[in-house]
Design goal:
alpha+beta; four-stranded antiparallel β-sheet; 28% strand
């Protein structure tokens, strides 16, 4: 009876697999790929954790000032950089000398603009050129991924099916993600407001779609306080209309915040910069809609919403 029961179970299992057909095989394959990807990611994290040469760290280096033009990408998008720098702006550029930045590169003598927005906010735009793109060099990338490859192959030799698939996935990844032999350079735009600000590699397409925002204030404004926003926008935008909804979501695991009503603020643009204050908090910024307006009042672009 025991042998018969076992045969019956095996037959039932074979019939179930046959009935599932390609869909089951596809599901099993997907599960294998997911586990292989997880194994590759775990090995990469381990190598980055224990191999200092495999970590991507910002290299803080002193700023270098040079008589070179402002980068073509920044100057094409921001008309404020196509006018000559004032004496105060050139002095502000010289003040950068010796300051350490996380991106390196060269600061043109004409690479700083001091802009007073319509509400009195002073916004500093600073652009660097010849900035190495962040990431590992090709040599460091090859060293690190050889370690991962060795570890995965050692597991695969032990008959680990997931590891065998991980070896192939890792080989595909290194072929497509391997950095070029010569590291490309880019431009950086830094936006400063008061003692704060931030910046990073300048992406013309991303800037045309989103602009650049710097903001500060309380988490929310239910108990007072306000949000101060400075926006850097492309040429042609003459004003920005910001609309904050009455209900501000806080994500899947937090309750939304309810305000008495929606708020709309419109600010004119001066030298590619608009600045304003709204009765909202930092956590409300993501729920706002920003409408870029042309000189005739028509809508050029909408961000958010």
């Amino acid at each position: 009876m025991r042998r018969l029961a076992l045969s019956t179970l095996l037959m039932a299992a074979l019939l179930a697999v046959s009935a599932a057909g390609p869909a089951a095989a596809k599901g099993q394959g997907k599960g294998l790929d997911e586990r292989a990807e997880a194994l590759v990611s775990a090995q990469l994290r381990s190598v980055e954790l224990h191999g200092t040469h495999c970590r991507v760290r910002p290299t803080f280096s002193p700023s270098r000032l040079a008589d070179v033009p402002v980068g073509p990408q920044v100057s094409a998008a921001l008309g404020v950089f196509r006018r000559p720098a004032t004496a105060d702006e050139r002095a502000a550029a010289e003040a950068w000398v010796g300051r350490r930045t996380p991106f390196g590169g060269v600061l043109p003598h004409d690479g700083v603009r001091l802009i007073t927005a319509s509400d009195g906010t002073v916004v500093t735009l600073t652009t660097f050129v010849d900035v190495p793109r962040p990431g590992l060099t090709r040599a460091a990338y090859d060293r690190c991924h050889k370690i991962v490859d060795r570890r995965l192959k050692a597991r695969a030799r032990q008959g680990n099916r997931v590891a065998r698939r991980a070896v192939r996935l890792h080989a595909e990844r290194t072929r497509t993600e391997r950095p070029p032999a010569t590291a490309p350079v880019t431009e950086v735009l830094f936006v400063g407001v008061g003692n704060g600000g931030g910046g990073g590699p300048f992406d013309p397409a991303e800037f045309a779609d989103e602009g650049n925002a710097t903001f500060s204030g309380p988490a929310d404004a239910r108990h007072g306080g306000s949000l101060h926003v400075a926006l850097v926008v492309p040429d042609g935008v003459v004003s920005v209309r910001a609309t904050f909804p009455a209900v501000s979501p806080r994500g899947a695991h937090r309750k939304p915040v309810h305000y008495p009503s929606a708020v709309t603020v419109e600010a004119p643009v001066t030298d590619n910069v608009a600045a304003f204050t709204a009765p909202r908090g930092v956590d409300d910024f993501g729920s706002a809609t920003f409408t870029w307006l042309a000189a005739d009042g028509s809508v050029m672009h909408t961000v958010g919403g």
